[in-house]
Amino acid sequence: MVGKFFHKRLVNPIISLLKQGISPEKIAMGVAGGIVLGIFPVLGSTTILSGLAAVIFQLNLPAMQLVNYMVYPLHLALLIPFFHLGDLLFRAEPLPLTAQELIGLLQSDLWGTIRSLWDTTMRAIVAWLLVSAPFFLALYAGLIHLLKRVKIPRWGAVN
After folding, report:
1. 18-62 pLDDT, tens per residue?
2. Is 159 inside any structural domain?
3. Which domain range does residue 45 map to?
4. pTM, 2 dp
5. Is the dihedral of CA 100, 32, 70, 10 positive or negative?
6. Burial class for 127, CB neighbours closer than 10 Å (0-12, 13-18, 19+)
């Protein structure tokens, strides 16, 4: 009885989650989505965004989160460029801020830094929106091409 309950409540949902989104199209969408959402220019938001996208579009959640975590260094590297692009788009005064200075500010006063960078972050989100759609489409097209060339027997036949 306990074994059945354990299997029904824990094992079956995990197996279902791992099997979800394993067609070439879904894998390509999950990887491309994980990368694009993984560089969203708001610290601490990418895991939630990737998780929501995986659930909404029925993509492989573990794979998408793994990709999201793998691009974390890229996420950090692109924060300042997205800030600058947003400032450029809105003709705002650019922040004279380096990555090291940003990390120092976040470590010393997280909420104060968030408040002071609010406008800059909103502009960076707009810049990300402009960049992310074509970037996603290019990644998706390239991954579809690659995955369809790879001979994997019977996509979706995982038992």
Report:
1. 555 577 888 889 999 999 999 999 988 999 999 999 999 989 888
2. no
3. 2-149
4. 0.78
5. positive
6. buried
